Amino acid sequence: MVNLSQFLRHSDATEDWLARYLVTEAQRGRRIVEVLQDPAVLRHADAATRARVLDRSEVIEALAENAVAQVHAEIARGDVAATRRPERTDP
User: To bridge 30 with a disulfide, which of 14, 18, 25, 83 should be the other Cys (CB 3.0-4.6 Å)?
Assistant: First the structure.
């Protein structure tokens, strides 16, 4: 018979590990899409676990800071072109 409390502890431990890993990798500047494709992530966390962890506040904060830093770096390199929206022409 499956011990439910042991399963839940394992699930919590996996989520905690994944949250720490995502925060660490985001602070290193890695894109979340790449991190979620890491073999260790795919091996230890199923899709439902990955989705739950993405809703954690510390993960959201780290990803937001990473995204802002990446945009700043792209602007500094000149990778982001200032473009105007095309004017709309109604018939």
Answer: 25
Which amino acid is residue 3, in one-letter code? N
Structure tokens at 45: 């966390």
35 vs 6: CA distance, rounded Å: 27
**Is 84 domain-assigned?**
no
The total of structural domains in the chain comes to 1
- 80, 71 Cβ separation under 8 angstroms: yes
Structural domain for 66, as ranges? 4-77
Cα–Cα distance for residue pair 23/29, rounded to 1 Å: 10
Residue 54 in 3-state DSSP? coil
**23-59 residue pLDDT tens:** 999 999 998 899 999 999 999 999 999 999 999 999 9
Instruction: Say what the pTM is.
Output: 0.70
